[in-house]
Amino acid sequence: MVAGASYTLQQPAPVDSDLKLLLPATDAPNPEFSIVIPALNEEITIGRFVEWCKEGIAAAGIEAEILIIDSSSDRTAEIAVAHGARVLKTPKRGLGRAYIDAIPYIRGRYIIMGDADCTYDFRQISGFVASFRAGYEFIMGSRFAGSIEEGAMPALHRYFGTPLTTFILNFVYQTKFGDIHCGMRGLTKDALQRIVLTSQGWEYASEMIVKSYHLRLKTAEVPVRFLKDQKGRISHLKRSGWITPWRAGWHTLKIIFVYGSERAILPISLALSIPALLVLLLLSAGPVQIYGVTLTSHTMMFASTGLILGLVLAGISILSTCINDRIGNHIEYWGGKFQFTWSMIVWLFLFAVGSILCCLFLIRFIAAGFVLNSDTALFGNLSILGMTMIVVSFLGAGFTILIQALVDRIRVSERR
Questions:
Q1: CA dihedral of 68, 71, 77, 81, whole degrees rounded to 10
Q2: Do 320 and 399 form a contact (C-beta atoms < 8 A)?
Q3: Is beta strand 33-39 parallel, antiparallel or unpaired with respect to 20-24?
Q4: Domain residues of the chain, as ranges?
Q5: Pairing of strands 86-89, 288-290
Q6: How many Å is the maximal CA-CA distance in the chain?
Q7: pTM listed for this prediction
Q8: Digitized pLDDT (tens) for each residue of the chain, 416 residues in all
Q9: What 3-state class would DSSP assign to 86?
């Protein structure tokens, strides 16, 4: 026992010298649910919050533990334990890291997350419980589908930031989330482990959503109540300054595009490369006049650049998709499409044809006394096509090697 407080200190395996688990005098022996909450200097609200959780647990009729991941320098941990919560003491290192640290200490099969500041009403968790019972693995809360107390959310967040980033994520991933920044959410412990969070700070929230999409988790959304700060408490957002919401929005966009590049970049690459390829083929036989405008070798050079840029973007998109593939389906699919032997034959063929076209132009150019004239114009156009084919062959060969390396990596992982 620790003097002056009704809790015990326990260090379960795996042992981490930076982490210490504090147990209350009375503890849930075999919880099915875990309410897992990071806290940083929340001594004003933590006692009321734990009591709200206990009310919510009783109303839902479930067996649950309350686990506070605490990085505070005030009495947050002491108060939380006194009210019946487990407390995992960790160094101060971010919201995302708090959930990563908590995984070995979570005993429940189902997890409900949120904030310890009494802005999310944990007296009402029955919607999450019902969704878990229905088989959902990832459950997002929605403040817009529920209620937002007057003064709880700044106008900039409510009418601009959150709707805009939610729209972008839904557009890129073709999902139907209503509030991607809602901190109250639930998921199974198995899902949390499979997501493999890497974000150390608050950007974990967006990472969790996009990875749940890649894992094809069965997802639901439930309405939640969002309340304004308790009297006497200043939110972490206000403490950290005006730039924090903009930084959060930027990090959200980063995660959306990093993990969703196949949806964000691939359409752009197709829009560039397909018209460019058609123009290249059309002009390879010589200048073409369309509606009084003559398209020449200069147009071909622009088309060549567009095709190469489009193919580079396509390669980046596909490789990013495979790297972020949580299941392995994309890697196997693209590995099959770019099978090494046959792909290399195609790239060597393109290289050979391109080299022949360039050599034909060079022979004609030398024969003409190094002068570009009407006699060498046709071969000049063909040489542009040839140089483009050579560049594409090198890009394709490099892309094939990288894809096959990813296929080999996933096969090695499966054997382990």
A1: 20
A2: no
A3: unpaired
A4: 7-259, 262-415
A5: unpaired
A6: 98
A7: 0.75
A8: 333 444 555 544 455 568 999 999 888 889 999 999 999 999 999 999 999 999 999 999 999 999 999 999 999 999 999 999 999 999 988 888 999 999 999 999 999 999 999 999 999 999 999 999 999 999 999 999 999 999 888 888 888 888 999 999 998 888 899 999 999 999 999 999 999 888 887 788 888 998 898 889 999 999 999 998 777 666 655 556 567 677 777 888 888 877 777 777 888 898 999 999 999 999 888 888 888 788 888 899 999 999 999 999 999 888 887 877 766 677 888 888 899 999 999 999 999 999 999 998 888 888 777 766 666 667 888 899 999 999 999 999 999 999 998 888 776 555 55
A9: strand
**Is 101:28 a contact under the CB 8 Å cutoff?**
no
Name the E strands within 130-177.
138-148
Q: Which amino acid is at 383?
A: S
Distance in angstroms (rounded) separating the CA atoms of residues 122 and 44: 17
Please tell me the CATH superfamily of domain 7-259, with its number. Answer: Spore Coat Polysaccharide Biosynthesis Protein SpsA; Chain A (3.90.550.10)
Locate all alpha helices (DSSP H) within 324-373, ordered by sequence.
329-337, 340-367
Cβ contact 347:396 at 8 Å: yes
Please tell me the distance from the alpha carbon of residue 312 to that of residue 396, in angstroms, as a whole number. Answer: 9
